[in-house]
Structures are given as C-alpha cells and as structure tokens.
Write a structure and sequence with these properties.
single chain, alpha+beta, 4-stranded antiparallel β-sheet, 1 helix, 24% helix, globular
Length: 72
C-alpha cells in the first residue's frame, strides 16, 4: 500500500503534497508540486509550470514551509 502525504495544499490547479520521513538524522519533509490539467475528459498532473503559475507557486511553497515548521 503506497504511503499518503501528511498534508496537501491546493489552490486552483496547483497542488503541493508534503511527505514526512524519519531518518537517522531526524525528521525530514519533502514536497511534490504538481499542476492539474485536462486531457479530453481525463484529469492529469504535470510537474511543468508556466510563467503565470509562478506567483501561485510562490504562495503555496510559502504555505508549505509554514506548515512544516508548525508541524515538525
């Protein structure tokens, strides 16, 4: 069974998933950032972003950073 992210932040078509892993050196967090898009009737995810996505990406990454510090 695949592990699930500990937290997910979504605004519009941009999604940030936060993963937590315990290592010998302590707790670590990683992020998966994706953009949703539609291909016909099917929704898919991409890791490519356009110029107009950058302001929202910055906002979501800042929110993810804050969440990690509050929940570490």
């Amino acid at each position: 069974m695949p592990r699930k992210p500990v937290h997910e932040i979504r605004r519009g078509l941009i999604k940030v998933r936060i993963w937590r892993k315990r290592t010998r050196s302590g707790l670590r967090h990683t992020l998966a950032v994706t953009r949703l898009f539609r291909n016909g009737d099917v929704w898919k995810e991409s890791s490519r972003f356009g110029r107009d996505d950058i302001p929202l990406l910055r906002l979501l990454l800042d929110e993810a950073h804050t969440w990690i510090f509050r929940n570490s």
